[in-house]
Specification:
2 copies of one chain form a homodimer. Chain A has 188 residues and is an alpha/beta fold. Chain A has a single domain, classed as Alpha/beta knot. In chain A, helix 1 packs across helix 4, helix 1 runs parallel beside helix 8 and helix 6 packs across helix 8. The longest helix of chain A has 15 residues. The first copy, chain A, starts with 7 loop residues before the first strand and ends with a helix. The relative contact order of chain A is 0.22. At the A-B interface, helix 1, helix 4 and helix 8 of A face helix 1, helix 4 and helix 8 of B.
Chain lengths: 188, 188
């Protein structure tokens, strides 16, 4: 039986992230990231989903997509998609998302970075599940493109262990990774 | 530690599936389904990924996408994407996929349907993991659009239990569902 993750938030970060040449960039919005991750958040009882982008045109694009599915024709045709996309909040920075959560919940906010790169200093999804029983809000941050920068990861309170298969290949989409982590964190 | 799923195949079915009015249809190809599910299959050590569509223009579209990433510019720029997309085979029917697998592996092929709808007669991912130790090939079938028809599901040997969260909402994308099932089936 799954436990609701009602003190867990998810943030999808478009800056600062890496490109395939290991350079720090700001990435473009991907429509499917909004849909797939919102649907997974809604399924697993996550409290809210923040889409973080500093670019004004991308903020406007995200708002247009969300409006179409929450107030437009999309939501009328597909109410379950409406239920998912109305969880999304768009902020210019990660800090702005944290401020909103802190203001809303009025308690400590713990930040957890995700990465496909291994590191000695990670907690497991099972450990995070136990930590969620604490009286704090938690934000799980995902990087788009080639992932969050090490600087961003270091600035978070915790780092989650990567999802591995039997081999060395670990190039999951951010949509797959977010879905798998939410399943692991909320289900037994 | 994850076990390689080297006698497990995945099939993404575009016909026969349901639309939101519960009518049987053939659905259109979604580019992201090819990428995300191939990347998850490659990560979790799945043996092969079949994309099933009866429509000639969709077969051609799938072939073009796969060629771009396996023989074209895409694969040069992104070798890990090449490694994922070269796992894909396109067939006109599910039966054709089964015939290919049977011919290649020269042993029994067990078919397992997935669905977001609950049913009394399901096996769990854990039970499927145990079954994978048998000397048989297994094909896990996913429906696009609103999912596989009950007729298709009934024609399969087994049916996998749906992925549920704490509430009634269970509208995961097929990309999320495939990723979560593969994680559950291969990881402890």
């Amino acid at each position: 039986m799954a436990a609701p993750a009602d003190n867990l938030y998810l943030a999808l970060v478009h800056y600062p992230v890496m490109n395939r040449k290991n350079m720090e960039i700001g990435s473009a919005l991907t429509n499917m990231d909004l849909h797939d991750i919102a649907r997974a958040c809604r399924t697993f009882g996550v409290r809210g989903y923040y889409v973080v982008t500093p670019f004004e045109d991308q903020v406007e694009l995200a708002d247009q997509i969300i409006r179409h599915w929450t107030h437009g024709k999309g939501g009328e045709l597909n109410p379950s998609r409406k239920e998912a996309l109305e969880m999304i909040r768009v902020t210019r920075t990660f800090e702005q998302a944290l401020e909103e959560i802190e203001k809303k919940d009025n308690r400590e906010v713990v930040t957890i970075a995700t990465s496909a790169r291994d590191s000695g200093d990670c907690i497991t999804p099972r450990e995070l599940k136990t930590r969620l029983k604490n009286n704090a809000s938690h934000v799980l941050a995902f990087g788009t493109a080639w992932g969050l920068t090490e600087g961003f990861i270091d600035s978070c309170n915790l780092r989650l262990a990567p999802i591995n298969g039997p081999g060395a290949y670990n190039h999951l989409s951010v949509r797959s990774a977010a879905s798998i982590y939410l399943d692991r964190i909320t289900n037994d």
